[in-house]
Design brief:
The chain has helices at 9-18, 47-53, 58-67, 85-93; strands spanning 44-46, 74-77, 80-84. The chain is of the alpha+beta class. A 3-stranded antiparallel sheet has the order 1-3-2. A hairpin with a 2-residue loop joins strand 2 and strand 3 (80-84). It is globular, with a radius of gyration of 25 Å.
């Protein structure tokens, strides 16, 4: 066989990778591509949205957080405070 007709293992691997669907297309269940867990993406809400959902004053919410009676806030940035929507909804259901 001539040199230009032979395919190295590396070339075969690259060719098989090229046949996989792009990342934005649906992936088959048996695929080895990365599939994030569904709980990996959590919806966070800011204070104005929290006020619409929870009929409590900011001070009351803060005090309840300190006592462990309300879901804890967390910081997206040094100046942006949010709450996990799933935790707030679970608190409302209780």
């Amino acid at each position: 066989m001539k040199r230009d007709q032979t395919i190295s293992r590396e070339d075969r691997t690259l060719a098989s990778d090229a046949m996989q669907p792009p990342a934005n297309e649906p992936v088959e269940s048996g695929s080895k591509r990365f599939q994030p867990a569904t709980d990996m993406f959590k919806r966070a809400i800011r204070r104005p949205e929290l006020r619409k959902i929870v009929p409590l004053a900011d001070t009351t919410i803060y005090e309840m957080e300190q006592r462990g009676e309300f879901p804890k806030r967390f910081f997206l940035t040094p100046r942006c405070v949010v709450w996990n929507l799933a935790e707030v909804e679970a608190w409302l259901d209780d």
